[in-house]
Design goal:
- By secondary structure, the chain is mostly beta strands.
- The protein has one domain.
- About 10% of the residues lie in helices and about 45% in strands.
- A hairpin with a 2-residue loop joins strand 9 and strand 10.
């Protein structure tokens, strides 16, 4: 297995490493007359995919955010979806279009928002919760992602040793990460969850009945058993260099 950090330019078009969207990633689409269209500065492009049943009434228009778009699936959310729940860690809905079967399915995932990528048949996600801005408040409410004390220790140690840190800086942004990861197998529509209790964590790769994920400075893998549930995780390596790892792939 190879792990490392790759920029968007390096991954554009590299299917099988991280098919997290290429040029369509996070662009806004609009459902008009039951068909998804991509809107850019001078473009009104019909992408040939109908919106999910229930959103295709005559004259009905919605704004969709395409989170990932690969050769196999398109993953979207409804902009300002009224179904989003903001209590606790929140809940939101991902709509997944399988380009092979030409069918939609949806999944309720933790968090009011999620960061997703696709690798082969899998959708890999990190749950997040953007913190609200209180208008006129001199001090905005703070909610730190779990595992902050451990992150601070590593940060202080790296600053003392190198004058800089590889930590992600999630404590400086107004997004709460509850430490909940998920993987969706689109071939079976099965969703798996991993709770890390560490805000700085993410799934890196999934293939051959294994899911690989990072928890702060440690790399794990966990087996998918009979395609139905996750077995016990195995620690692969623990090192501060792992802090900067955001991608992984297996060579032939």
């Amino acid at each position: 297995m190879v792990v490392g950090h790759m920029t968007a330019a390096m991954t554009d078009g590299m299917h099988g490493i991280g098919e997290s969207g290429g040029r369509d990633h996070t662009l806004t689409y609009q459902g008009e007359s039951g068909v998804l269209k991509r809107f850019e500065v001078d473009t009104n492009l019909d992408i040939g995919i109908r919106v999910p049943t229930g959103f295709d009434a005559a004259g009905q228009t919605q704004r969709w955010v395409v989170k990932a778009n690969s050769e196999r699936v398109l993953v979207a959310s409804l902009y300002q979806d009224p179904a989003t729940k903001r209590e606790g860690d929140g809940l939101s809905i991902l709509y997944v279009y399988d380009k092979l079967s030409k069918k939609w399915s949806n999944f309720t995932v933790p968090g009011t928002s999620s960061i997703v990528r696709t690798v082969g048949q899998y959708i890999l996600g990190v749950c997040s919760f953007p913190l609200p801005i209180v208008p006129g408040a001199k001090v905005q409410p703070v909610r730190y992602s779990p595992g902050r004390e451990e992150r601070q220790k590593i940060h202080a140690r790296q600053i003392a040793a190198y004058g800089e840190t590889r930590s992600s800086g999630i404590d400086q942004i107004r997004i709460y990460y509850p430490g909940i990861l998920f993987a969706i197998d689109t071939s079976t529509n099965t969703m798996f969850q991993i709770r890390t209790n560490q805000g700085d964590s993410e799934i890196l790769y999934a293939a051959d009945r294994w899911i690989y994920y990072r928890v702060l400075d440690e790399l794990f893998r966990v087996p998918i058993v009979e395609g139905k549930y996750l077995g016990p995780p195995y620690s692969m390596v623990k090192d501060e260099a792992i802090l900067g790892v955001h991608w992984a792939f297996v060579g032939s």
